[in-house]
Automatic annotation (TrEMBL), chains A, B:
Transmembrane segments: none annotated. GO terms for biological process: formaldehyde catabolic process. It comes from Mastigocoleus testarum BC008. It catalyses: S-formylglutathione + H2O = formate + glutathione + H(+). Pfam families: Esterase (PF00756). Belongs to the esterase D family. The keyword Nuclease does not apply. The keyword Plastid does not apply. One of its GO terms (cellular component) is cytosol. This is S-formylglutathione hydrolase. Its EC number is 3.1.2.12.
Length: 279, 279
């Protein structure tokens, strides 16, 4: 059972904000869905967006300007929240880069986080089923993209589940969480000290082990302060892709920062990239 | 002197958020400017956006998706805040539809508002000069549009200053403030009881007296609750335009509401409308 909290007509389609009880996360979760006009007459492909630190299910739908292109290509957009909220875990709201708004798309194994923070299973398993039960979609055609922490999420979900996703792309993704402060904090907090487990959630490790069946598109702004602070490390991912001959289109965008103003500027290209594999 | 508070590259151009001391409003005012890529090599036309109740200079730039089309057509976008803020006037923050965030684009004559609330002069006189002094623009090519209270503002600014503006359009504008609750509250509060003064700020009255030299484009969503509550009254403006043979393209957009999701859906059409008269 999902609950519709608000709904808007936009670009000829329908944008809804929903909540439901997630069995993976054992708590309420929220997500947004944009149904393109085509969805009134046929089952359409699904494109998932995973957001970055501190975001909710709203940011992407308000700021990215994606609906126009989803409507043009007939894709249903799904944007989940970035973590469970109000779980009652002590300290969940203490950091902006851990806990609430910072689920990092992993299945936590460490107490107390393991009782609720199962964002990997939520995104890969539960949410697609919820979407299929409630919206006119074709689950044989799914793709995934995201921003920053959500770019990390998109890459790991896609590489670990190549049969589920036709294509993947990212804006300013955290591609080597084992080697940056955000990632070290999140992976140690959610997964404990065993770095073998961490590597299942590190795109740079995964591409060397698994790779992906279609070319990966990544945009990175050169004026992005988190890029400059070595939280993102696209150069490591690029090197790993080169090692294993993984097709990668990494574009450094001169002068762009980490904001949705950057994302919106290249949204058309990303949705076009996915539409090629989905339509 | 204007102060740059933040700046972002977007769609190949530059978005800045500014503050300055306004002599019209005798207080700090804020505005946002999007400089299209063309502005690095030539003076470009200016398109002003006036926002609705409760908005700041940010809403439009975050939500409307206008930068893409401004970049395509080489237009500089300017979005001022909707009122002075923190003026110290007693009760300025008491209502969401009067005072802060609700300047209604009039020059207040009533004490205490008359000491700061001069949004009409600010938009029509002071702001264009500030823009001309600080940005590469061609003030012979200006147009104006807006939403709700700002649609009202755009229409009255354009009709009263046909030599300044090449074109005007609006989303869900308040077109007959003398005949709706929002307008009655604002006009009586800012201008007192003399309804002759009010009529200078009422688009439906002005079009009968003055008209405008180019066709007016208006989009109105049919699921807009403020339309249903008779705050907007496009039918009165349509009737007045018909009386005086003012060319009007009033489009009722089925199922759309009052939000920026509606605005974004038709932004391309509006910017195209202005580009025809500006380029």
């Amino acid at each position: 059972m999902i609950k519709l909290n608000s709904e808007y007509k936009t670009f000829g389609g329908k944008l809804g904000f929903y909540s439901h009880f997630s069995s993976s996360c054992n708590s309420e979760m929220r997500f947004a869905v944009y149904q393109p006009p085509q969805a009134t007459s046929q089952n359409v492909p699904v494109l998932y967006w995973l957001s970055g630190l501190t975001c909710t299910e709203e940011n992407f739908m308000i700021k990215a300007g994606a609906q126009k292109y989803a409507a043009e290509h007939g894709l249903l957009l799904v944007a989940p929240d970035t973590s469970p909220r109000n779980t009652g875990i002590l300290g969940e709201d203490e950091s902006w880069d851990f806990g609430t708004g910072a689920g990092f798309y992993v299945d936590a194994t460490e107490i107390p986080w393991s009782s609720h923070y199962k964002m990997y299973s939520y995104v890969v398993e539960e949410l697609p089923n919820v979407i299929a039960e409630n919206f006119p979609v074709n689950l044989d055609k799914q793709s995934i993209f995201g921003h920053s922490m959500g770019g990390h999420g998109a890459l790991i979900c896609a590489m670990r589940n190549p049969e589920k996703y036709k294509s993947v792309s990212a804006f300013a993704p955290v591609v080597a969480p084992m080697q940056c402060p955000w990632g070290e904090k999140a992976l140690s907090g959610y997964l404990g000290d065993n770095k073998d487990t961490w590597s299942n959630y590190d795109a740079t490790e995964l591409v060397k082990k698994i790779g992906f069946h279609s070319p990966i598109l990544i945009d990175q702004g050169t004026a992005d302060s988190f890029f400059q602070q070595k939280q993102l490390l696209p150069e490591l991912f690029e090197k790993a892709c080169a090692q294993v001959k993984q097709p990668l289109n990494l574009r450094y965008q001169e002068g762009y920062d980490h904001s949705y103003y950057f994302i919106a500027s290249f949204m058309e290209d990303h949705i076009h990239h996915h539409a090629i594999f989905l339509n």
